Amino acid sequence: TGLVVAMDGPSGSGKSSVSRGVARALGLRYLDTGAMYRAMTWWMLEQGVDLADPAAIAARAGEPQIVSGTDPDAPAIHVDGVDVAGPIRQSDVTGAVSVVAAVPEVRVRLVALQREIAGAGDIVIEGRDIGTVVCPEAAVKVYLTASAEARARRRSAEVAGSTVEAQQAAMAKRDTLDSTRKTDPLSMADGAVELDTTALGLEEVIAEVLRLVAE
Ligand code: ADP
Ligand code: CDP
After folding, report:
1. Closest C-alpha residue for ligand 1 atom 17
2. Which of 32, 39, 46, 138 is 20 to 30 A off residue 113, Cα-Cα?
3. Ligand 1 centroid, distance to 17 Cα (angstroms)
4. Complex ipTM, two decimals?
5. Which of ligand 2's atoms lies nearest the C-alpha of 177?
6. Per the confidence metrics, is the pTM higher than 0.90?
């Protein structure tokens, strides 16, 4: 099997941009596992599932058909045949995704899908539990970080009409949920290399990861 690069870290640390850049440079596939948790959350909201009730989320977690593309130049995500690439980035989904992602039945289902896609290798796969759970055998594991302020500044530059302060508060809430949940919390994998991107440009981070791959 081919090369697997596992990329983990909190929101706004640069996972998506760096992973796509690395995949492009090396001709690898690319999988955004966060988009799959977002797609599951979008579907739960559409269905009117009570997100305050983990048992209700668990009972429906097997229903939506989630299909993820692996082209770094055109990331695609469909739920039951509907293109949800736009809607999954909206604030209702962003505000609910960490609650849905904490439900073990959701994780079991999506981790199985992710392993199926990653199995053939030749892929850069990004998320919160890639180096620890989805692909613990990955040849290269990267843990991206950046200061909370830098991450919030980056995200607020992408989201129209948002302030850095509001982004930072929303991110802090999600980071806490993601790193304290019982199942597969965000944490640095054994053998991962930590890269603090606060003071680095995107191209510098990509070059550093390419250097790790070449080692
Ligand atoms: P994540 O996937 O970890 O949430 P993204 O890749 O979506 O992070 O990055 C969020 C934003 O920050 C993007 O607009 C991206 O271009 C920008 N960004 C990422 N890495 C850097 C960096 N090292 N320096 C400056 N901006 C960056
Ligand atoms: O866009 P952003 O980096 O902020 O987040 P994302 O990568 O799209 O992931 C959205 C959410 O999905 C995270 O906050 C986690 O709650 C969840 N997630 C997860 O639990 N495990 C993963 N492997 C990927 C994402």
Report:
1. 154
2. 46
3. 6
4. 0.96
5. 16
6. yes
Please provide residue 51's backbone torsions phi and psi, each rounded to the nearest 5 degrees. -75, -5
What's the average model confidence in pLDDT over 2-15? 97
Q: Any idea which ligand is nearest the CA of 201? A: 1
Ligand 1 mean position to 48 CA, how many Å? 32
- Give the number of whichever ligand sits closest to the CA of residue 12: 1
Exposed/middle/buried for residue 147 (C-beta within 10 Å: 0-12, 13-18, 19+)? middle
In one-letter notation, the amino acid at residue 48 is G
Compute the distance between CA of residue 10 and CA of residue 27 in angstroms, rounded to an integer.
Answer: 25
Question: Please, what are the domains in the chain?
Answer: 4-214 (3.40.50.300)
Q: Which of 29, 183, 189 is nearest to 117 (CA)?
A: 29
